[in-house]
Write a structure and sequence with these properties.
The protein is mainly alpha-helical and about 110 residues long. It has one domain (about 1-110). Helices cover about 70% and strands about 0% of the residues. The chain has seven helices and no strands. It has helices at about 1-35, 40-45, 55-60, 65-75, 80-85, 90-95, 100-110. The protein starts with a helix and ends with a helix. It binds heme C. Heme C (HEC) binds near residues 41, 53, 71, 76 and 77.
């Protein structure tokens, strides 16, 4: 019986820490989205003539690889954004590397 309770407590703890981590990622992703380039990615992307990131991810037309490519190098009217992302206070505070910062932003866009 004791063993069962210990196991259940362990499972609950693991589940909880997983969701805390996901929430932190989404929160940091939102801060990047809202603050990059001073006014946020939405300055351009919440305008319907520009690519709709969340819709494109849902439709499968924007892949994680293209996302990373465009943010790293820019494309047409899209400025190179990786340096801006890495300067974000939430990213430096969390000590995120590039992959972690891009994952957080991607996670936020998936749920936006
Ligand atoms: C100055 C306006 C502007 C800002 C700010 C901006 N973007 Fe863009 N973005 C664009 C434009 C315009 C395109 C389309 C580029 C093209 O295809 O020629 C684009 C394309 C993209 C794409 C490719 C979309 C697709 O479906 O292929 C991604 C991903 C992207 N932007 C992410 C971001 C993120 C994340 C931010 C904030 C860090 C951001 N952008 C900030 C204008 C902007």
């Amino acid at each position: 019986m004791k063993k069962t309770i210990g196991t259940i407590a362990g499972v609950v703890l693991i589940a909880l820490s997983g969701s805390v981590f996901a929430d932190e990622q989404i929160e940091i992703g939102k801060k990047i989205y809202d603050r990059a380039f001073g006014r946020g990615c939405g300055t351009c992307h919440d305008i319907s003539s520009n690519p709709q990131l969340t819709a494109n991810i849902k439709a499968g037309t924007l892949t994680r690889a293209t996302f990373e490519e465009v943010l790293t190098n820019g494309r047409g009217g899209m400025p190179k954004a990786i340096d801006e992302i890495m300067k974000n206070a939430a990213v430096t505070k969390a000590g995120y590397g590039k992959d972690q910062a891009l994952d957080a932003l991607w996670k936020y866009l998936e749920t936006k």
